[in-house]
Amino acid sequence: MLRVAGLLLVSGLFALQANAGMLDDIKKRGEIVVGVKNDVPRFALLDQKTKQIQGFEVDVAKLLAKSILGDEKKIKLVAVNAKTRGPLLDNGSIDAVIATFTITPERKRTYNFSQPYYKDAVGLLVLKEKGYASIADMKNTTIGVAQAATSKKAIDEAAKKLGVNVKFNEFPDYPSIKAALDAKRVDAFGVDKSILLGYVDDKSEILPDSFEPQEYGIVSPKKDKEFATFIDKFVQDNKAQIDELATKWGL
Length: 251
Known about the structure:
Elements: H1 2-18, H2 22-29, E1 32-36, E2 39-40, E3 44-46, E4 53-54, H3 56-69, E5 75-79, H4 85-90, E6 96-97, H5 105-108, E7 111-113, E8 118-127, E9 141-146, H6 151-161, E10 166-171, H7 174-182, E11 188-192, H8 193-196, E12 204-206, E13 211-216, E14 219-221, H9 225-237, H10 239-248
Parallel strand pairs: 1-5, 1-6, 9-10, 9-11
Antiparallel strand pairs: 2-3, 3-4, 7-14, 8-11, 8-12, 8-13
């Protein structure tokens, strides 16, 4: 009887460990691993001198670390892009993503999203010398967008409504799109306007067009509802401070 009771106790402990949620795992580890961009000025950009990623979303990630662990320094940042952030979350390499991840009904079927912490709209960056006033002037042009991003769909739908035919080239990151624009291999750089702000220069301009509002959420694995609920409440409770951080970074 004692042996059976002992086995039941051990199996019960294993069950508890197996059912331990991500919050408990993060607290035991003493560190939260967050996926952020490293090529988006103001949001999250790698400083070539310090080799540190800095920006609005990095500060939000630090605020989340402080909320969970009591110390904003107990965080590990992993650079992601629109194509890699989902897979890295899926395989457990990161705990959460704070990387201009737009909330969509399709994505919500795969991941947990918090309520929005930032809202924006897709826009177009073009060379001034082209003389474009809006997308209506851009028939038979090629627009550069990021792989796996929502920008392509938003721009394509807007163009079709105007009867404007455009093509798309997809790139792995934003600097690659800007380089293609400067080299005139694409006619426009399409992404959220606040991201474009970090790439505009004296030779380029952001057109007045705004396509399909984009709401960014903090993303976590679908498997852990408790963790998702905590993150959602974190955004709600810290909305004023998050807005202040956006202002701090000129967003």
